[in-house]
Specification:
2 copies of one chain form a homodimer.
Chain A lengths: L16 E2 L9 H7 L9 H18 L5 E5 L3 H12 L5 E6 L2 H12 L3 E6 L8 H10 L5 E5 L1 E2 L4 E2 L3 H7 L5 E5 L11 H4 L3 E3 L13 E5 L1 H8 L12 H8 L11 H17 L1 H21 L3 E2 L10 E5 L6 H12 L1 E2 L11 E5 L7 H13 L5
Parallel strand pairs in A: 1-13, 3-4, 3-5, 5-8, 8-9
Antiparallel strand pairs in A: 2-10, 6-7, 9-10, 11-12, 12-14
Helix pairs in contact in A: 1-10, 2-10, 5-6
Chain lengths: 377, 377
């Protein structure tokens, strides 16, 4: 790899085609929005913009939840906000683990003192809804049942409907990680019965990283307000955050107007395109890539019937070592793809076609590079 | 106030002159840097840029601490990272409280289970170093002693040297909130003997909000690595963060390249100007404003010998109600200043002259507006 040594300047950085597991390419109009002059976090203009962001987030989440906003941190801060607010020491949390991000949820839940009941599935597959429901029947007083909708580490698309329907009858809150799904495949929070759902801006939403959209159902808000112990994180305390986001406009932290500009513009682009059209685009482009890679001898790491269109995890033809080829792809062709995590380390490429990057031109550029490097069969 | 109703777009937002307690005005070149195409958080170009940011942060903090970086959150996330990593349940924390942000530190410390020993001073004054040292003598096993260097709620400039010298002989870690001081007045972490110091990017550093520079001394790193309980926050766990920032480059979260672009450019501007020249500029412009306001009948909320140049807290002449006049200043003149917090609520304006905004032209525009609105005597 080329070594980059300081002093460097931002303008000297070479742009890349971002086809990894995120961040995804950001459109010129979203980048331009970022550079609009900074506003104060209590400026009435900014508060109106934030309200409009929240309204647009409700649409993409498919929810009427009043408490829907963007946490000032990356997608993992959304995960942290969900679990830290809902769980208290001694609570039981049922966590589905079928990849790296399920493990992360379990880690976070344990750190706040919860007892974690893991329901596991092989990496690349999905969690069995019956097993999740059985785990809930064995632990009916669990505070939360949490799963990852789009496992960024494996490319698997977790079904949610059965578990959502089952949990409607219970006091257990349904938590869904939609970091890689929101904006790429339908999420439908209210229809499914999800209580807390969070995402990141830098995947299928098409904005830069730095904010974590999140939504809390009225039941989840009720749970938070009936906590016995204070939330261990002041920064992510959703009660304090709701006083800033809500009508009180009570100062909490200095929200980054520039990041909100980018998210607002990305959500406007999404509205122009239409959510259904956006999902269709992700699906069509993803299938195009997956077929083209198969014809070149790449094999799916993900269970074939469970593949996400926006994140394709594949083994390289002939068991080639992925890391040096991934480095060449970046250096010679300016294309970023991701390597594997956990048991997939060293074995797979994770190729994202998300947001502004989910287009045929991305697929063509990647395939040309793969052919140029002689990777395919 | 004008009501802004959706639909709005970013390009329709009216820029303001940001003379509140932060965010401060961002220079055109920093705004332009923000809009550079997004890079991946593991791209070697981005990692080199981040290393360069860390090197520049060491200079402005006045430290050789290897573990110096920017947390992916606002200044309050820096405070949260400091206290959440250093404190465990049952630990004692001595916290200086002479304003809103000292109260926030105490709140955060209690939430992670620490016993808080408050040392208090009147809002507008500073903490007595002798009292802080006495509190430490009474609680020699305290894990941390924490103070706010520049109390953003009162404009007071807390002396640090005596407490720093005293704590060098002890195992108690010295934590300093430099959110509003870093880049505006000298901080000198190593000379004073500060163990953990954090700031925000949106004050005297001149970048947009969204990142929190922080530095940990080797003693602080040792303390973190000898914790008995895991850090309650996965997102802010400095051990995990150091594995990403350090030579391992282990994936943790998706750092926002665009925010780092802005911070890098702001730190480059600071280097061109020189740190001493930058401090001088803040001092000169601050004194200019403070004298001009005094001549118009504004009186200092802050103890006169302890005023920060970059944040001026003043009562309005003749006991005028501040809020409606502050709204007029924003609406008619496009200038943002801050109101009071806590006991200063409704009574004071907090006027920031920070970073790119610390210039005579800002003072002139503010005074013209004050005169136009007939606020001064």
């Amino acid at each position: 790899m080329t070594e980059y040594t300081p002093p460097i300047s931002v303008s000297s950085l070479t742009p890349r085609l971002l086809l990894g597991p995120g961040p995804s390419p950001v459109s010129p109009s979203v980048l331009e929005a970022l550079a609009h002059p900074t506003l104060g976090h209590l400026d009435p203009q900014f508060l109106a913009l934030m309200d409009d962001v929240n309204r647009r987030l409700r649409e993409v989440f498919g929810t009427q939840n009043p408490l829907t906003f963007a946490v000032s941190g990356t997608g993992s801060a959304g995960m942290q906000a969900a679990l830290t607010n809902l769980l208290e020491p001694g609570d039981t949390a049922i966590i589905g683990v079928h990849g790296f991000f399920g493990l992360r949820m379990a880690d976070m839940a344990r750190r706040v003192g919860a007892e974690v009941v893991s329901v596991e599935a092989e990496w690349g597959g999905v969690l069995d809804s019956g097993q999740l429901i059985d785990a809930h029947r064995s632990h009916p007083h669990a505070r939360v049942l949490a799963v990852v909708h789009a496992e960024t580490s494996t490319g698997a698309h977790q079904p949610l409907d059965e578990v959502g329907a089952h949990l409607r009858e219970s006091d257990t809150l349904f938590v869904v990680d939609a970091v890689t799904s929101l904006g790429g495949v339908p999420v439908d929070v209210d229809r499914i019965g999800v209580d807390v759902c969070y995402s990141g801006t830098q995947k299928c939403l098409g904005a830069p990283p730095g904010l974590a959209p999140i939504t809390f159902s009225p039941d989840a808000v009720q749970r938070v307000s009936s906590r016995v112990t204070p939330c261990s994180s002041w920064y992510l305390d959703v009660t304090l955050l709701s006083e800033y986001m809500g009508t009180q406009r009570r100062y909490h932290h200095t929200a980054s107007s520039n990041l909100f500009y980018g998210l607002h513009e990305a959500l406007r682009e999404m509205e122009s395109e239409g959510l259904q059209a956006r999902h269709d685009r992700h699906r069509q482009v993803g299938v195009l890539l997956q077929n083209a890679l198969a014809s070149r001898g790449f094999t799916s790491f993900t269970e074939p019937s469970r593949r996400l269109p926006q994140l394709t995890a594949v083994r390289l033809p002939g068991g080639q070592d992925e890391a040096p080829l991934r480095a060449l792809l970046l250096e010679r062709h300016g294309i970023e793809v991701g390597g594997g995590l956990g048991p997939a380390k060293g074995k797979v490429w994770r190729i994202g076609l998300m947001g502004h990057g989910a287009r045929e031109a991305s697929v063509e550029r990647l395939l040309d590079a793969v052919d140029d490097l002689g990777i395919g069969e």
